[in-house]
Design brief:
Layout lengths: L5 E2 L2 H13 L20 E3 L2 H9 L5 E4 L15 E2 L8 H6 L4 E5 L3 H10 L4 E4 L4 H14 L3 H22 L6 E8 L2 E5 L4 H9 L2 E2 L9 E3 L2 H7 L3 E6 L3 H14 L7 H4 L3 E3 L13 H12 L2
Parallel strand pairs: 2-3, 2-5, 3-4, 5-6, 7-9, 7-11, 11-12
Antiparallel strand pairs: 1-10, 7-8, 8-10
Helix pairs in contact: 5-6, 7-11
Protein name: High-affinity heme uptake system protein IsdE
Family: Belongs to the bacterial solute-binding protein 8 family.
Pfam family, one: Peripla_BP_2
């Protein structure tokens, strides 16, 4: 059991989940209990990340997509009906499209599953909490949508990339890493159970808070972080990255405790682009791992 750590409060966790759904959305995974393999001709997708996966699988027949001001939807789905925000798709519009299935990130299963059931809409919840989870969902979708060959191609590419990284880092000492996920006005520690933590693990880093006993994010005071003595501190955000990074700069300048961190003394503090290091798995994980390598192994 991790000591000296307070699990994320309900308010902070709610904020984290909101940040998650503002953009690519998604952290978790499960599936529909009544999959009619190959019979999904009308599909609704409630997150951009889900649309990107369907596009990679070359799936047509997507009739509903999320509204987004921050990301580009695949050209294939530009003519689909907008369902509203990822966190709160318009159930009336969704039902009017008469989809055979709605695809949603697992992070919202507890919130949306009952609504889908009440509307009589079959649902499948993708695991976008980790790169591995994303590819497990791709395999399942390949079976459901008669795209197994394409799914197998994507999985083979992923396995080749991960194998190459492991081989390249073999014998290297893993640096101890502290990951801070910024929210407007606050921040939490990201563990291996989060997507950004998963990326750091895949790249060969050792998270000083491990898997957080299954918690993606933890509330931890700087005094406890100091005891962990990380070699490297990574700072990222989701929404409003400029504001969040300014907040981090003020925090590190105004709170004297940060000056005592060895990573700060040795200039081993790095800000990560939230486009690659956000809350949910995307195909940009390849670029993310490439960006992490020179940071972790200098």
């Amino acid at each position: 059991m991790i000591t000296g750590i307070k699990k994320v409060t309900a308010a902070v966790l709610a904020a984290v989940m909101l940040m998650c759904t503002i953009s690519l959305t998604g952290c978790g995974g499960s599936d529909s209990s009544s999959a009619k393999e190959g019979q999904y001709n009308r599909i609704a997708a409630t997150s951009v990340a889900t649309c990107e996966i369907l596009d990679k699988l070359e799936v047509d027949g997507v009739v509903g997509v999320p509204h987004t001001d921050s990301y580009e939807l695949p050209e294939r789905y530009k003519g689909a009906t907008e369902l509203g925000g990822a966190m709160s798709p318009d159930m009336e519009i969704l039902a009017s499209l008469e989809p055979d299935i709605v695809l949603t990130p697992n992070s919202l299963e507890g919130y949306l599953k009952e609504q889908y059931d009440n509307a009589g809409i079959e649902s499948y919840f993708l695991d976008l909490k980790s790169v591995e989870g994303m590819y497990n969902s791709i395999t399942e979708l390949g079976k459901m949508l008669n795209k197994e060959d394409k799914a197998d191609e994507l999985v083979a590419e992923y396995e080749k990339i991960i194998s190459g990284i492991k081989k390249k880092n073999e014998g290297k000492e893993a640096p101890d890493v502290l990951i801070l996920m910024g929210l407007p006005g606050s921040y939490v520690v990201a563990t291996e159970s989060s997507y950004v933590g998963n990326l750091v693990k895949l790249a060969g880093g050792n998270n000083v808070y491990g898997d957080g006993d299954g918690q993606d994010f933890l509330n931890v005071n700087p005094e406890d972080m100091l005891v962990k003595d990380p070699d490297i501190i990574l700072r990222t955000s989701h929404a409003m990255p400029e504001q969040v990074m300014e907040m981090f700069d003020r925090e590190f300048k105004d709170d004297d405790i940060w000056s005592h961190f060895r990573a700060v003394e040795e200039n081993q503090v790095y800000d990560l682009d939230n486009e690659y290091f956000g809350m949910s798995a995307t195909f940009r994980y390849k670029e993310a791992l490439e960006k992490l390598e020179p940071i972790l192994f200098q």
